[in-house]
Amino acid sequence: MKKILRNMLLAACLFSLPLSASAAAKDEAKDVNNLKWWQKTVVYEAYPNSFLDTVGNGIGDLNGITAKLDYLQKLGVGAIWLTPIYTSPMGDNGYDVADYCAINPLYGTMDDMENLIKEADKRGIKIVMDLVVNHTSEESQWFKESSSDKDSEFSDWYIWRDAAPDGKEPNNWGSIFGGSAWTWSEKRQQYYLHTFAPFQPDLNWENPKVRKAIYDVANFWLDKGVGGFRIDAVPYIKKPASFANGTIDKATGFAPIHNETANTPGILDYLHEFKQEVEEGKDIFTVGEANGVAADQLHQWVGKNGVFDMIFEFSHVNVKFADGEVWHKTKAWKLTELKQAIAASQANTASDGWYPIFFENHDQPRSVNNFLHEGADTVQGAKALGMLLMTLRGTPFLYQGEELGMSNVSWTSIKDFNDLSTHNQYKLALDNGHGHEGAIKIMQKHSRDNARTPMQWNTEAQAGFTTGKPWLAVNDNYMLVNAEAEAADPGSVLSWYHKLHALRKANPVLIAGDYQELLADNEAIFAYTRNDENTQAIVLINFTGDTVSYPKELVTDAKLLLSSCDGTKRGKLRPYEAVCWTKNISRRS
Ligand code: GLC
After folding, report:
1. Fewer Cβ atoms within 10 A, N terminus or C terminus of the chain?
2. pTM for the complete prediction?
3. Which residues does ligand 1 sit against, CB inside 6 Å?
4. Helical axes 436-446 vs 420-431, angle rounded to 10°
5. Which residue's CA is minimally distant from atom 9 of ligand 1?
6. Dist. CA 83 → ligand 1 center (Å)
7. Is-contact 513 36, C-beta < 8 A?
8. pLDDT tens column, 549-575
């Protein structure tokens, strides 16, 4: 009986019901020809500091990215998101912007940038800028004037408050990078607010002049021919009117600013204005970094009446955290939790909106360490994750080195780490009773530097990244994991990504088809179908190091399109095996 029921359920998943009027409208969306360019492509995130250094100063540069455009084109990349390349004192590696319309000399010149845009365009690749709009650097001319003179025209471009009667901070909010969210300005004799580090003062979005300045910056770059924007830390731009004290978190002694300001009501009014002033009528895309927007709010943020084309939300990458993003407070997580987080985003953008698929970025550890079991085969595991990245419904965002299966570092001294949030989290871990040994292990697991080590191009010194001394050490495993060796090896992670690109190109159902989850309760297998009018693709991925079984009926009459193992069998998956099958379903019409 159980088996009959199970088969009936499977049949319901695998064959759609007759078409109703609303289904017919929905089916238009399943036609790849109705999608926009950025829904059909792969976006590659380049972290310029670590991509390729062409001058030997140990820091990657714009010409390094231009030099690798053919490599990226081969991966099917249609857009490159550049993390900030504006002038910056580099306290947070560019996320502290001094001048939004000038190129950081470490990365090159405006001519280099224009050349990159032009050369990328020739290859059908758009450059996407990172707009850091919640805050600037303290080195910004806007902040310099604001902090030195209460009567300056920039006076209320930032968030200034008098000291509390006892001379202390105006409230108990704590910044994301540790410590109070307020810093005293001697010059101005007031406190200013900073969601992140003290050198990253928050802009005052209530001020229409600030908003206009941001729109002008965006339009400056659009005039140069960029294809869109990733909007940094956007849920924090609107602050609640009251600035009241929040609930203190014992670990830090502050009320986390995230809890007080993320996604404050009224934020969408600003963002509708942003859309109107920046995007309306242009063939570009926007993707907001929107930690704190819940899956069921996605429809207000993306889609026809939303404010962006896509947003990154973090429920799936945060499954491991027990209490916000406090690195020493993690929990064991099950595959079903990851699947539920992803299924929720898929469901909430199914009929309106679009989703960016990602497992890595410059703020996350490497996915082979983050999502696979300790000791997993990282080559097969990277292929499993690659299958997921490239076949879920949405635009895949591939982070540099992910296509090589690059992995975390195992540095044992905190001095080896560059990232300021790593230093803060290390201190927090020590303060909370983890000794050095324990705290450094936590950093090896969660540090943002894991993703920021230089790209591994070949087996030459410094993995071919630089002829000088790299700004951050190269991962020791570069003799094995590098682009040149992998390009020559048909079994490598890089070759797998080439196959995945070919798979998407040949099977538009993987781009435009709807998403239906299978085996939702299974703790070993991530399984789903993608469906359009005529075709069904069935994706099955084993997330364990064991051979596992699934109901053969799922792939009856199906043809195998791609597998990460030789000799794939119906109903079985070898360790970390990832497969994509297809069948014709046109008979239902
Ligand atoms: C975003 C960026 C991160 C940066 C922070 C502050 O989260 O991705 O790298 O540190 O904003 O700008």
Report:
1. N
2. 0.95
3. 92, 95, 132, 196, 232-233, 289, 362-363
4. 140
5. 363
6. 10
7. no
8. 999 999 999 999 999 999 999 999 999
